[in-house]
Amino acid sequence: MNKPFMPQLVYYEPRALEYPLGKELVQKFEKLGVEIRQTTSHNQVRNIPGENELQKYRNAKSTLVIGVRKTLKFDTSKPSAEYAIPLATGCMGHCHYCYLQTTLGSKPYIRTYVNLEDIFEQANKYMEERAPDITRFEAACTSDIVGIDHLTHSLKKTIEFIGQSEYGRLRFVTKFHYVDHLLDAKHNKKTRFRFSVNAPYVIKHFEHGTSSLDQRLEAAAKVAKAGYPLGFIIAPIYIHEGWEEGYLEMFQKLSAALPAEALNDLTFELIQHRFTKPAKRVIEKNYPKTKLEMDEEKRRYKWGRYGIGKYIYEKDEEEQLKEILHRYIENYFPQAKIEYFT
Fold first, then answer.
1. Ordered structural domains, the chain, with CATH
2. Which of 98, 61, 144, 91 is closest to 282 using CA atoms?
3. Alpha carbon 237 to its chain's center
4. What single string gives the DSSP state of each residue in 164-214?
5. Cα 41-47-48 angle, rounded to 5 deg
6. Which of 2, 63, 234, 300 to pair with 26, CA 20 to 30 A apart?
7. Which stretches of the chain drop beneath a pLDDT of 70?
């Protein structure tokens, strides 16, 4: 995917026009000649075009809803942050394993929230409550926020808002390389810019509609030169034929691509592949030809929050994944911090 996301269809909630960003976005898409429809609420978005469920799903992923975030209670976002800051929901990528397929269910379209002032006011309250402790906000829990920010600049405004705060920190992760407009943001080193990376096999077969590994690494180098603290999420760590060589190749590329500026404050987060029974059903429906291995017999069951357990690798496989990836990181990035393996 080398072209930045451009929706084929845009819906807007009437209340969105009460906010500067809402007005600006509707005008922008009118000028670009994108089809625009009004909707009373994102829940009322119906009639996504398509002759069958698969087509409708694909078309929904190129539909943008400009809306107002009504619930200002932020979700928690462990282990990476205290809170999820709600800037957008949904993603234009087609990653077969993605948990958003089940959390967003029948609403895979992308939503962007234009009442940033309200969202920032709420974030301030959370920071005040916890002060003088640092409060970390995750901006990519329910979306790939970088994938739409060239249109909205909400993320850029959030980076600058957190940059001016005393006790706030921001983090997000992306599989896209459209970072140029974020390079001059006044981040004051309070935002950790993370890229999701993986072995070539995983990107080729399961991460359709995203930037290539080389594009992500080129973007990571730009971000490091712009002074952002940098991080990488390796997720999902996936066992496939030749996986040890695949992840080794990934680390070699990473090592060759990163400038010296990145190395002083570099983090890694490691997440093994997992799936739930509901996720497996949705994935097989949305991507009927997927090569993704989801055999419950080959996995162990781990109880999760809300009573929904997940299938993860057997203990010995998990230990092997952890040991080998830790070793690669220690070889190539001895000063980096491994935040967790899960």
1. 69-341 (3.80.30.30)
2. 98
3. 16
4. T-SSEEEEEEES----GGGTTS--TT-EEEEEEE--HHHHHHHEETS--HH
5. 95
6. 2
7. 1, 42, 44, 305-306
